[in-house]
Amino acid sequence: MTINSRHPRSSRLVAVIGFALLAGGCYVLPAAGPNGAYVKSEAVGDQSGLPYDLIELNAGVAAVLATRGSGTFAGTFKDRRPPADIPIGIGDVVSVTIFEAQQGGLFIPAEASVRPGNFVTIPDQVVDRSGFISVPYAGRIPAANRGPAEVQGIIEARLRDRAIDPQVVVAVTNQRSSQVSVLGEVNSPVKYPLTSAGDRILDALARAGGPKGQDYDTWITLQRGGREASVGYGTLISAPSNNIYVQPEDTLIVSRQAPAFMAFGASGANGQFKFDKEQVNLAEGMAMAGGLLDDRAEPSYVFLYRLETREVAERIGADMTKWETKQVPVIYSLNLRNPGGFFLARKVPLRDKDIIYVANADGVEWAKFLQFVRLHITTVLEADAIKTVGQ
């Protein structure tokens, strides 16, 4: 006789245990995420999913991450000088006043009259789409993209042979070009003309009544010549190098978006957590998520998931040969069994859309496996007991 016929219960128990072992090896057991050792082995193995670089979080890496800002105006826009003399532009309203040395000239009659002086003011006119204005006896005068002094010189040259020692004053009475727009989450959206004195970004924001939100959830986007960059309002205030001069036709867009990170795995709470100040470091983020669960977490397997720029990825030693994208998926590994790990965590600022994952300890995985086996063995024993009673 075979073993199966003599000991059917033992045979079934062996089958159940075998199935449980197979299930455990095939990751059938429930889990909140990957095993910590699997995260590390996949980084150097054949990555079947989205590939990533695994970077050990040490003092050097933390220093790079601590100095990397969310973006800078100074780094994106190299010309940080104040605007030069603001030129006349299309749509501007221009006033022209012509002076002559004495009466009896082209514009000043010889007859005595009550006049404030030997000058005449031409009615205000708008610079047309072709960039010209009209002056009697001087014809069409090119004005766009020229300063008032240059336009004055052109008019004087054209009138020199007809008027008596003419001198001209050109003034912009209504500047409709060379303006800056401040839009979005400000108290008074505004579009205003620049002056040669120059305005910095904070000056422009002040003209719009300032942002509505808090410094940590307010972002300033500067659009200029087809390029743009965004900086947090708190960073703009704390780093004066970002408070650059605005230029004609710049647009400032103020938006509100509280940065947030996510926490998964063996942390006290899983979910999305919004920043409650401008900068939150990794240690503070773990605290916001309830810390590490003492009965589940493996402190040596704390991971920070982030999409890094190529520049930062190169600086932290990522393998750039396999990346052609602008952003590189990086998983930072932090060992909190090392007493200095918490100091490292304090140096690493979190970014918007970061993910903190805390893996389970190996003992927890074994406990789940044994529970899985016990559940199936109990099921077999109960079935045999019911069968015996039925007989």
Q: State the domain count.
A: 4
| CATH architecture heading of the largest domain | Roll
Structural class by SSE content: alpha+beta
CATH domain topology of the largest domain: Outer membrane lipoprotein wza fold like
What's the end-to-end separation, in Å?
Answer: 23 Å
Any idea what the CATH superfamily of the largest domain is called?
Answer: Outer membrane lipoprotein wza domain like
The 3D shape can be described as rod-shaped
Query: What percent of the residues sit in helical stretches (DSSP H or I)?
Result: 25-40%
Secondary-structure element series: HHHEHHEEEEHEEEHEEHEEEHEHEHEH
Radius of gyration over C-alpha positions, nearest whole angstrom:
37 Å
Look at the structure and give the CATH class of the largest domain.
Alpha Beta
Q: Output mean pLDDT.
A: 83
Main sheet summary = 6 strands, mixed
Describe the structure concisely for a colleague.
Residues 82-173 form the Polysaccharide export protein N-terminal domain. With 391 residues, this protein is α+β, with helices and mostly antiparallel strands.
Descriptive notes:
The structure is a single chain. This protein is an alpha+beta fold. It folds into four domains: 3-27 and 367-383, no CATH class; 36-70 and 259-361, Outer membrane lipoprotein wza domain like (Outer membrane lipoprotein wza fold like, Roll), CATH 3.10.560; 73-83 and 179-256, Outer membrane lipoprotein wza fold like (Roll), CATH 3.10.560; 93-174, wza like domain (wza like fold, 2-Layer Sandwich), CATH 3.30.1950. It is built from twelve helices and 16 strands. The chain has helices spanning 3-6, 8-25, 36-44, 59-67, 73-76, 148-159, 201-207, 233-238, 282-288, 310-315, 341-347, 362-390; strands at residues 53-56, 93-99, 119-126, 132-135, 139-142, 167-174, 179-184, 190-193, 218-224, 227-232, 251-256, 260-265, 271-274, 297-309, 327-334, 355-360. Strands 1-15-14-16-12-13 form a six-stranded mixed beta sheet, with helices on both faces. Helix 2 packs antiparallel against helix 12. One of its GO terms (cellular component) is pore complex. It comes from Blastochloris sulfoviridis. One of its GO terms (biological process) is monoatomic ion transport. InterPro entries: Poly_export, Poly_export_N, SLBB_dom.
